[in-house]
Specification:
By secondary structure, the chain is an all-alpha fold. The protein is 75% helix and 0% strand.
């Protein structure tokens, strides 16, 4: 996705710059966990060093939280583009979208720093076997011999607050987008607006739904088998699905694929249908 946007000058606008950052985040997000996960599946030695566990959790939480904020920024970007398309280039200039991307990264690093310091300040004097596929906050809390009540509240309040803020931004943005679409006189314009926003809404729903299931719930409801399946889904499956969601459901991206890959003889015989 990032390579396609870079190669096609018609995709050089803030919406697709956000997609480039999202693609990089997905790659980093998955890379922080997947290689070690695959090694554990194939090897009898499933050990990870203490510092390796710290680094894995910090990177995983950083990229995951950054993506939450980025998806909210992308919703605002879609609102600006649809509400007043003639002023889109001015309203979403580099002075606007670059700080949004930087703020998303700062939010991700801040949350990861707090969660990592709070989690690894605990004592792990009993079992050192993490009953999970990677180092995440809930499974680490379960093997700690310290009082984890404060950590559980911290996890619930921080993740809950981030989810409330980001989901509210998405809901408000798309509420205003819906009003703007209903005012459009052109059926083609409404169709293009729905097509553009549909992919983003799909990605947001899948991502936030999984996070809410994993983290915003009482610690007593954690179930190892279900958590491992959900974790595998949002660390491996979602990063793989995002390029499909944002490309095959987007008319501009499909046309860019024809132009770029058609020049090198690929997809000449392939047709995309909306």
């Amino acid at each position: 996705m990032a390579l396609l946007i870079t190669m096609d000058s018609r995709l050089h606008n803030p919406m697709y710059y956000f997609l480039i950052v999202l693609s990089i985040l997905d790659a980093c997000y998955s890379s922080a966990v997947t290689p070690k996960m695959l090694v554990n599946f194939l090897s009898e030695n499933k050990a990870i060093s203490y510092l390796g566990c710290v680094a894995q959790m910090f990177l995983f939480v950083t990229f995951g939280t950054t993506e939450c904020f980025l998806l909210a920024a992308m919703a605002y970007d879609r609102y600006v583009a649809i509400y007043n398309p003639l002023l889109y280039a001015v309203s979403m200039s580099p002075r606007v979208y670059v700080p949004l991307i930087i703020a998303s990264c700062i939010g991700g690093i801040s949350n990861a720093s707090i969660q990592t310091v709070a989690t690894f300040s605990l004592s792990f004097c009993a079992s050192n076997e993490i009953r999970h596929v990677f180092c995440d906050v809930p499974p680490l809390l379960t093997i700690s011999c310290s009082d984890t009540h404060t950590n559980q509240l911290l996890l619930l309040y921080l993740v809950g607050s981030i989810e409330i803020v980001t989901i509210l931004i998405v809901l408000i943005s798309y509420g205003l987008i819906l009003l703007a679409i209903l005012r459009m006189r052109s059926a083609e314009g409404r169709s293009k607006a729905f097509s553009t926003c549909g992919s983003h809404l799909t990605g947001v729903s899948v991502y936030h739904g999984t996070i809410l299931f994993m983290y915003v719930r009482p610690s007593s409801s954690y179930a190892l088998d279900h958590d491992m399946i959900a974790s595998t889904f949002y660390t491996i499956v979602i990063p793989m699905l995002n390029p499909i969601i944002y490309s095959l459901r987007n008319k501009d991206v499909k046309e860019a694929m024809r132009r770029v890959f058609g020049k090198i003889g690929i997809f000449n015989k392939v047709s995309f249908h909306s």
